[in-house]
């Protein structure tokens, strides 16, 4: 698989903003609680039993370590923060690589792929390639778990941590581009509050997040 040129957004995060994000969120990541994590809860509800899991945008791999410890599966993660990767390799001993979603290049396929609050960062120029590469990494019959912002209507928001460059986050229902491929079906969903990361009704649209569980159809 050829490696495309990095998008502007990916370059910004690989060159330092990813590390800045990790430092801003370090304490929250270190307080990761597998019992409360929405993706892990979804997997338990659906009695998933992954054998080989990939997390795209894994930060320091706290969720990957929990997946490995709970399900006994092989885990691989990618992120654009070299600091997060170094922390995760040392702290959890998980396999982390510095890659953007739109240049994802990992060996073999996986029966679980997790993307938690990743797709809204990806440039609109790189989104189709990211979807294609994630789809290629997931084996037929596998599960794709997508968590992201879930406003009533698609919304592009200026990234307030870097006012020196024109960066946006893109908030919308990211199950749609995968379902549009024609070989995914939605099998699970819940929504809740971004601040609490808990399933709950009555959340204002700008605060609401969604979690979608998709199954890749097996070949006929």
Structural shape? globular
The sequence of SSEs as H and E is HHEHEHEEHEEEHEE
The overall pLDDT, averaged over residues, is 93
What about the largest sheet? 7 strands, mixed
- Radius of gyration, CA atoms, in whole angstroms: 16 Å
| The top level CATH class name | Alpha Beta
Can you tell me the number of structural domains? 1
Total helical elements: 6
Distance between the termini: 25 Å
Please give the share of residues in helix: 25-40%
What would you call the structural class? alpha/beta
Order of neighbouring strands in the sheet with most strands = 3-2-1-4-5-9-8
Feature tags:
220 residues, alpha/beta, 7-stranded mixed sheet, 9 strands, globular
Describe the protein:
This protein is of the alpha/beta class and 220 residues long. The protein has one domain (8-216): Rossmann fold (3-Layer(aba) Sandwich), CATH 3.40.50.150. The chain has six helices and nine strands, in the order ααβαβαββαβββαββ. The chain has helices at residues 8-30, 38-45, 62-71, 82-91, 127-137, 176-179, and strands at 52-56, 74-79, 95-98, 110-116, 138-149, 155-158, 168-171, 184-193, 208-216. The strands form two sheets. It has a seven-stranded mixed β-sheet with strand order 3-2-1-4-5-9-8. A two-stranded antiparallel sheet has the order 6-7.
